[in-house]
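Posting for a labmate who doesn't have an account.
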Amino acid sequence: QYKHDFKEGFYVVQKQKKLLAIVYGIIGMNFLATMGLAVLPIISETSAEYGFWLAAISLGTMIGTLISSRLETFALNRVMPIAALLSGLFWISSFLIDAGLLSIVLFGIAWIGIGVNSIYLYTLIQVNLPPDYLGTGFSFVSSLLGSLSPLGYFAGGVFGEWISSTTILLISGIGYFGFFCYFLLHPLLRALTVPVSTRFETTAEEKIKINQRL
């Protein structure tokens, strides 16, 4: 049954070209981010310090989740790339400065933008997938999003043995700049001047209702 549902989700999601374009960009960004997360225990001198890094992630994500509702009226082609850009700036600054508590604070701020984009992504999934296929489509997209994360953790651990952990973390931060550029250069995403709650594709039934109103 799961195999059947997964295929069904695939056929539904593959029609959502704009949504998939965003998902592909986030997959690449997540891959590099997980490389950095894999070496956080290495740069932590104590278990308490590692706990502070994790707390910064949780707090930053929570703040991003809370403020995302304040940004829902703004265009997608502004909010998502800018949130990624700010995340990249604070992420890289955190490890370039290397100033103890300040680095952890900057790292937490980086996760505010990540939290915003995370909420935006799942909102887009909910808005754009047909209600009857929301469960199967959501399962497929979630599987797709996490497909490269194990590889990212593995790559972070392997490359962390060959080059410095700080270098891995800086490379991870560059992934957010990559998403920023990807969003602005991709023709479909660059044209997304609608807010997050707007459906990308209008169904046939919705078009009939709109014509009846007119």
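Reply:
Got it, the structure tokens are right above this. The two ends are 44 Å apart (CA to CA).
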